[in-house]
Amino acid sequence: MRLSYTSLLFLVGLQLAFGQFESNGTGTTVGTMPTEIVTGSVMTTALNEPTTTAAPQTTAMKTTMEPRTKFVVNDSNGDACIMEEIKASFEIHYNMTNGEGKVVQGKVNFELPQNAETDDKNSSCAGQGMAPKMTLLFGNPTEGNYFIQEFTTSANNSALTYVSLALKHTPARFPNSTQPGELVQYSGKLSNSTFEVNNGNAFVCRADQTFPLSNANVTFSDVRVQTAGIVNDTFGNGVECAQDSTTTSAMTTEIATTKPVTSTPLPPAHFWEVKGDDGKVCMMFNMSVEFKITYNTTKNKENTTTIPLPGDADPSSSVCSNTSASFVLTFFDDKWKMKMDFMYYNDTKKYNNTGLSLFFVYDDHFQDAKKKGQNMTVTFKDTHIEAEKNTSYQCIAEQTYTASPVEFVFSEAKMQPFAEYSDGKMGSPSPCPADTKFNNIVPIAVGCALAGLVIIVLIAYLIGRQRSSKTGYESV
Questions:
Q1: What does the alpha-carbon distance between residue 351 and residue 122 come to, in Å, rounded to a whole number?
Q2: What pLDDT does 31 receive?
Q3: By three-state DSSP, how is residue 379 classified?
Q4: What confidence tier does 254 reach under pLDDT thresholds 50, 70, 90?
Q5: Which residues lie across from 165 on neighbouring strands?
Q6: Is 162 exposed, middle or buried (0-12, 13-18, 19+ CB in 10 A)?
Q7: What DSSP line would sit under 154-200, residue for residue?
Q8: Residue 260: cis peptide before it, omega within 30 degrees of 0
């Protein structure tokens, strides 16, 4: 009887348990816990399915352009002469007053709104002495904010060569600015190879590309732009930038090494200087640089070629300002370019290198190259090149910065990106850690030699004293 009672309870429990999974006849599935609302989010738990562990979510590589506003400039016939989809973000440095009433440097980040509108009156198409120009207006019309892009075109290609952003210093956007209510411009000239593409094609680049402006940096991404050969208001064939290629995407390995002694002589050091609009020298560089580039041949063999930076490299594309500087050297018929970006910070009174880049093409320097004619870009971001204002950075020791497949090899380096001199002389040198370590070898060696000499003298003295004591005892 006791067994039957227990069995009965067991059967009733089973019925109650399985009853949770039956329909209640109202159209709502029973067996799912009621939806529980937790701080605005909805969480549901299913009880009628096996418990499983969720697979980790994998974000696929972006292979298509994200939907963006297409900005268009039309000619007098209503046909598109410039078309662009772009994301532009800015890091802006400005002077502000802190709580103590002192002027310090502030920083704000700004992103170009996708609801910006084309200013037809201040935009232009190529032709009749006019260069392609796109002007975008955004924000409150009374503020006068705008973003300008100017292009150059030739018989074969076009490129972006100048950008300018104007923002009104409102209290909300620029707190405690020393220029409240003023429309301040941040502009810069870009290299002639920026977004370069053959006419009739669209330049496409999903990767981030950062360029220095006056008191600001601009970063472009998800770019698709065409300024010539547009047919039926549609983009032509997309030509991807080197950063988007699978080869270039692997170029993120950064290794900095120091080699105080070299087994093979490096090329001689060369001197460059850049003058500002006032005619005074604003940048000076004296250094030896060579590039060791590894590449694959048509036979899938790995080769390495060493290319010295020529002394006649042209620095005319360099840009100076009070807080940002870009030292640019073009060489090999302007097909190669080395760029060093610098930032100066008022709060620390120091400047540092924010990027070292090489733009090159697989040309005749690469024997039997598999990717003959392909343009490439590599960037090393943290070189630890820094110094105080009015001083020059100096590193005599060999320094190697690796951004695969390129090794940048520097030696005899003396540089001052924020110079304020007209006599062409650099400020007092600020040595790099590698030079300090190397220079310490000599005094350490001298100290060790002196210590050894003292020990030898002490041992000789003790031996001599012992012999002297024995002689005296024997005489007694």
A1: 37
A2: 35
A3: strand
A4: low
A5: 147, 186
A6: middle
A7: -SSEEEEEEEEEEEE--TTTSTTBSSTT-EEEEEEEPPTTTT-EETT
A8: no
Burial profile 416-453: b = 16 or more Cβ within 10 angstroms, e = fewer: bbbbeeeeeebbebbbbebbeebeeeeeeeeeeeeeee
For the full predicted model, state whether its pTM sits above 0.70.
no
Contact 220/151 with Cβ under 8 angstroms? no
DSSP letter string, 107-130:
EEEEE--TT-EE-GGG-B-SBTTB
Report which listed range, 7-21, 179-193, 451-465, is most confident. 179-193
Taking residues 275-288, report their average pLDDT: 88
CB 84 within 8 A of CB 224: yes
Amino acid making up residue 163: V
Structure tokens at 100: 């103590």
CA 464/CA 462 separation, integer angstroms: 5
Question: Of 324, 325, 391, 348, whose CA–CA distance to 105 is shortest?
Answer: 348
Contacts of 98 (CB under 8 A, 6+ apart): 104, 176
pLDDT digits (tens, 9 = 90+) for 45-73: 332 333 333 333 333 334 344 446 899 99
Tens-place pLDDT, residues 341-363: 999 988 888 999 999 999 999 99
Do the beta carbons of residue 394 and residue 431 sit within 8 Å? yes
Q: Which amino acid is at 385?
A: I
The token duo for 78 is 């209503």
Strands (E), 169-253: 183-189, 197-198, 202-205, 209-213, 216-226, 238-240
Measure the CA–CA gap between 64 and 449, rounded to whole angstroms: 67
DSSP state of 36: E
Measured CA to CA, the distance from residue 171 to residue 426 in angstroms comes to 40
Q: Report the pLDDT value the prediction gives residue 30, as an integer from 0 to 100.
A: 33
Run of H or E including 409: strand 406-416
Closest by Cα among 72, 337, 398 to 193: 337
What's the distance, CA 438 to chain centroid?
A: 30
Q: Determine the Cα–Cα distance for residues 223 and 236; give it in Å rounded to an integer.
A: 14
Kindly state the helix (H) or strand (E) to which residue 444 belongs, with its residue range: helix 441-475
Portion of the chain with pLDDT greater than 90, in percent = 44
Q: Residues, the chain, total?
A: 476
pLDDT of 258 reads 56
- Distance between CA atoms of residues 296 and 38, nearest Å: 56
pLDDT (mean) for 102-121: 91
DSSP letter assigned to residue 318: -
Confidence of residue 170 (pLDDT cuts 50, 70, 90): very high
Q: Which two tokens stand for residue 214?
A: 């006056």
